[in-house]
Amino acid sequence: MADLPESHPRRSSLLARQKIVDGTKKGLLADSSMIAHGRGEAFDYLLGERTTDSAAMAIRHVATLLISAERPVISANGNTVVLAGESLIRVAAVVGCPIEVNLYYRTPERVFGLLSLLQEQRDSVAEEKGPSEFKGDWGKAVRSVRLLGDEADFRIEGLEGPRSLCTEDGIGLGDLILVPLEDGDRCEALISLGKQVCVIDLNPLSRTARTASVTIVDEVSRASISLLSEVLNPTKIEGEWDNDAALRDSLKHMSNSIDRL
Ligand code: PTJ
Q1: Which of 1, 53, 106, 121 fits a disulfide with 85 by CB distance 3.0 to 4.6 angstroms?
Q2: Where are the domains of the chain?
């Protein structure tokens, strides 16, 4: 992608595709990761590849929930680590929460590979100057982000097979789980365990989007960058969160895309 001009109108989309291609070649991603990504791209195209106001509100709300939770956890699958790993490490450093590799298509090799990539990303983020709003030792905060997932010592009740495996210290005992690109079964299972579940999913009609406590209908890398700004400057949303209203708003944006013709 070295010859892709900065001004190319589809630059960020093409770079994201390349990350998925590279991650697949390295064996880090599920066989169906490209299908999932392509589906996301189609919804993002209809959104105009931008964060809508309702998604921005959802991100703001998730930031305050992450900060006020007792045991927040960021769950990361293959696509998420490859597309937004570094941003989510920054978020975890500010919130002081762990990141757990938790996969739909779980294999020991993929868990190991994704944890190794997250470690590399954490090392690189720890070398950054850090956001100006962050008070404290950035490198220390980043290095203390725990990366979980290899010790599967807990099962998510209500899920069958290897995808039910998780870490007790992470998702098992977590009270608020941020799960980008999640599957509907897992979201439902986590909710029925009494946890708050915040998701990032470009499909507002997915079972995940409709089941979650808070749904951010936005692209995972874009949303993760905004989430960092919000956890650095948290602003409480007044009143009860109406998730259905946020989903309806994102659908309205998609159907209004016809006006761009
Ligand atoms: O790494 P694993 O084994 O956990 O597998 C990960 C995938 C994503 C392959 C797996 O969970 C899967 O098959 O997911 P689904 O059921 O296809 O759902 C993925 C959802 O994420 C869909 O609703 C997509 O629209 C949405 N999506 C895809 N790419 C993005 C996205 N949402 C936000 N940002 C994206 N970049």
Answers
A1: 121
A2: 53-259
Average pLDDT over residues 32-54: 96
According to the model, what pLDDT value does residue 95 have?
A: 98
Sorted by sequence, the CB contacts under 8 Å of residue 63 that are 6+ apart come out as 227, 230, 231, 234
Which homologous superfamily is 53-259 in? Phosphopantoate/pantothenate synthetase (3.40.50.12640)
Which pTM does this prediction carry? 0.96
Alpha-carbon torsion (173, 204, 222, 234), positive or negative: negative
Q: Which pLDDT tens digit goes with each residue over 120-129?
A: 999 999 999 9
Tokens of 174: 């977590």
Residue closest to 105 by CA, chosen among 77, 81, 85, 66: 77
Let me know: does 94 contact 135? Beta carbons within 8 Å. Answer: no
Instruction: Please check whether residue 203 is in contact with residue 254, taking contact to mean a CB–CB distance below 8 angstroms.
Output: no
Residues with CB under 6 A from ligand 1: 30, 32-33, 36-37, 39-40, 43, 77-79, 83, 103-105, 181, 183, 200-203, 206, 219-220
